[in-house]
Amino acid sequence: MTATADSWEYPTQRKFDDVAPLSEVDPNDKAAVLRSRALAVRESWINAMEGRIIQQELKKCYRAEGVNHYQNCRHLVDLYMNALKEKRVEGWRKTESA
């Protein structure tokens, strides 16, 4: 089966328990802080892996479509460019920029 413009869609993801964001957690509740940190890191890595999956599908489409890849893979290019901007690994600690 070749990867065409209409044959690809996002894979389903496992859903984890909802945890309050780190900014809303009581700093004295260590268990809640650790759960919130784990959630932030997990979500960040899920977003990064979504970007990697889109990149792999774009490569498949490029190879399968040949000279028509500009028209037939455009939606994947748009998804990938959006993923490069928005789906980065951030972690739970924010540093202040100068």
List its traits.
98 residues; transport; membrane; mainly alpha; elongated; 3 helices
What class, by secondary structure content?
mainly alpha
User: What portion of residues belong to β-strands?
Assistant: under 5%
Large-scale geometry: elongated
Gyration radius (Cα, Å) is 18 Å
Order of helices and strands: HHH
Amount of helix: 40-55%
Low-pLDDT residue intervals, each spanning 5 or more residues: none
What is the terminal-to-terminal distance?
A: 51 Å
Number of DSSP strands?
A: 0
How confident is the prediction overall: mean pLDDT?
79
Major beta sheet summary: none
Helical stretch count?
Answer: 3
Please, could you describe this protein's structure?
The protein has 98 residues and is mostly helical. It has helices spanning 30-65, 69-72, 74-86. The termini are far apart. The model has no long low-confidence stretch (mean pLDDT 79). Helix 1 (30-65) runs antiparallel to helix 3. It is elongated, with a radius of gyration of 18 Å. The protein contains three helices and no strands.
